Amino acid sequence: MTKDWKTRTTLVHEGSRRSQYGEMAEAIFLTQGFAYPDAETAEARFIKAGEDEFIYARYGNPTTRMFEDRIAALEGTEDAFATASGMAAVSGALTALLRAGDHVVSARALFGSCLYILEEVLTRFGVKVTFVDGADLDQWRAAVTPGTKAVFFESMSNPGLELVDIRGVAEIAHAAGALVIVDNVFATPIFSRAVEQGADVIVYSTTKHIDGQGRALGGVVCGTRDYIRKVLEPYMKHTGGSMSPFTAWLMLNGMVTLDLRCRAMAESALKIATALEGHPKLSRVIYPGLTSHPQHDLAKAQLGAGGTLVTFDIAAGKEAAFRFMNALTIAKISNNLGDAKTIATHPDTTTHQRLPQEQKDALGISKGLIRLSVGLEDAGDLVADLMQALDAA
User: Fold this and answer.
1) Nearest to 204 by CA among 345, 129, 93, 298
2) 233 and 336 inside one domain
3) Which of 254, 293, 355, 370 could be stapled to 211 by a disulfide with Cβ–Cβ 3.0 to 4.6 Å?
4) CATH number of the domain to which 341 belongs
5) How would you class 226 by CB atoms within 10 Å of its CB: exposed for 0-12, middle for 13-18, buried for 19 or more?
6) What is the rounded distance in angstroms from the CA atom of residue 317 to the CA atom of residue 299?
7) What is residue 217's DSSP assignment?
């Protein structure tokens, strides 16, 4: 029977598996293998493992399966596969599907490691990749052909917070028979309705909002059961990119408060963006929840909120940006996001440092750009901290 649960109930209870002891908290099954009562059972399980039957932790584990079931239920997909990191999820989702001669169309605005997978790894093995301006549906129409195997994009780009119209791109891709693969980290599973809007495969770095406390690396790929178990799982289990049981346990605990955290962060992010907009030391403030954002209407329709990140450009450039960051007293300087702690990042010198200057220019990554991942601190305290740091800049 389909459970008619709301999001917060799903985040607390979905996928729970209890041992004979009836524990309340999800159990951590820290084991690399599983014992069989007899040789016949071992043989049968290697032929086809049942729903609650496991062979080896690289293939699956009860704790990991709880996390996979819970995130799939939240995302609205049939299944999910948990991976060792967000990049293991991205590379696995693409590499498991593609072969030499296949064609992929991708948005140009991507995290540096995602660009590396597309530009260096896939092309090395004969996959043809075409890059487009993700916000321009006409470019997608021109690039996607009947031979295109997949399209790939970040639903909200890092760090420019540019949105891709999931429904619009999905219509173009599906008309050509292509699979729609979406990196949905900035949108979060709370605000996104990517499956409803046409995405076939959704990828998350669970290191970010899902863990939410900066404790562990992780990733997950959500999709149809056929894609997850017949396409992705064989590749992941043989190449070793699966999530550890302990990490899965951390992610399960993070999910319990995911809805509460993301909504509180987004509420604070809007207050911060509103306070920063028009500041004389800033040349621009980018936040999809502001009416000044060129894709504000799309953000409201696609997400219903502006998200948990705010990007702004300190007009005087790198030295002023560094003075600003060094003056912060609450926000921490780091390169993660989605944490309970507010984090300030200077993409030009950290996360996107190795991109050629022309790519940085195309993505709007200036010397003064700051990416702020809004945490759970009091919004008023954060605004005060940012304002005194801007005075120092």
Assistant:
1) 93
2) no
3) 254
4) 3.90.1150.10
5) exposed
6) 29
7) -
Q: Going edge to edge, which strands form the sheet with 128-132? A: 79-83, 219-223, 201-205, 179-183, 148-154, 103-107, 128-132
pLDDT digits (tens, 9 = 90+) for 301-313: 999 999 999 999 9
Query: In Å, what is the CA distance from 92 to each residue of 43, 51, 150?
Result: 28, 23, 14
pLDDT tens digit sequence for 189-243: 999 999 999 999 999 999 999 999 999 999 999 999 999 999 999 999 999 999 9
8-state DSSP, 228: I
Answer yes or no: do 21 and 143 share one domain.
Answer: yes
Last residue of a domain, one of 224, 255, 286: 255
- In Å, how far are 226, 285, 334 from 273, measured between CA atoms? 42, 7, 20
What token pair was written down for 200? 């076939």
CA dist 299 and 386 (Å) reads: 25
Contact present, 393 and 356 (Cβ < 8 Å): no
Residues 191 and 53 in one domain: yes
d(CA 392, CA 370): 15
Outline where DSSP puts E strands in the chain.
79-83, 103-107, 128-132, 148-154, 179-183, 201-205, 219-223, 282-286, 309-314, 332-333, 343-345, 369-373
Residues spanned by the domain of 215? 7-255
What are the CA-CA distances from residue 177 to residues 123, 167, 304 (Å)? Answer: 21, 15, 29
pLDDT in tens, 260-319: 999 999 999 999 999 999 999 999 999 999 999 999 999 999 999 999 999 999 999 999
Structure tokens at 127: 């996959």
Chosen domain end from 255, 288, 320: 255
Separation CA 363–CA 356 (nearest Å): 11
At 337, list the tokens: 């996001």
Q: Look at the block and give the residue holding tokens 């911060």.
A: 272
In sequence order, the β-bridge partners of residue 106 are: 131, 152
Q: What is the distance between the alpha carbons of residues 337 and 374, in angstroms, rounded to a whole number?
A: 8
Bridge partners of residue 286, in order along the sequence: 311
